Amino acid sequence: MITYKPPMPYPLVICVSLFLVSSLLQPFCTTTTAQTYKNVSKGDFLIAGQRDSSSFWASPSGEFAFGFQAIRNAGFLLAIWFNKIPARTIVWWANGTELLAPAGSKVQLTADGQLVLLKGTTGEKIWQAEPSDNRVFVSHAAMLDTGSFVLATAGSEYLWETFTSPTDTLLPSQTMVQRTTLVARHGETNYSDGRFTFTLQGDGNLVAYAKHTALDSVMDYYWASSTNNATKLIFNTSGSIYLEVMDGSIINVLPSNAVSMQDFYHRGILEYDGAFRHYVYPKSTSSAAGRPMAWTCLSAVPPNICRLYPPDRGLGPCGFNSYCSYQDQKSSCHCPEGFSFIDPNDRSRGCQQNFVSQSCTEPSSDTDKETDRFYFYDIPNGDWHLNDYEWIHNVTEDFCRRNCLADCFCGAATYTNGDCHKKMLPLSNGRTESGVYGITMVKTRKARNSTLQPPGGYPKSENKDLSTLIIIGAVLLGSSVFLNIFSLQVMAVRFVKRKRRNIQPLVLPGMDLQCFTYEEIKIVTDEFKEEIGSGSFGRVFKGFLASGVGNYVAVKTFNSMVAEREQEFNAEVSAIGRTNHRNLIKLIGFCNEKQHRLLVYEFMSNGSLSNFLFGDSRINWYDRIQIALEIARGLLYLHEGCSTPIIHCDIKPQNILLDDSFTAKISDFGLAKLLKIEQSRTMTGIRGTKGYVAPEWFRSKPITIKVDVYSYGILFLEIICSRKCFDTEAEDEHKMVLADWAYDCYVERKLDQLMKDDKEAMEYLERVEKYVKIAIWCIQENPAQRPPMDRVIQMIEGSIEVPIPPDPSSS
Question: Is the pTM of this model over 0.85?
Answer without folding.
Answer: no
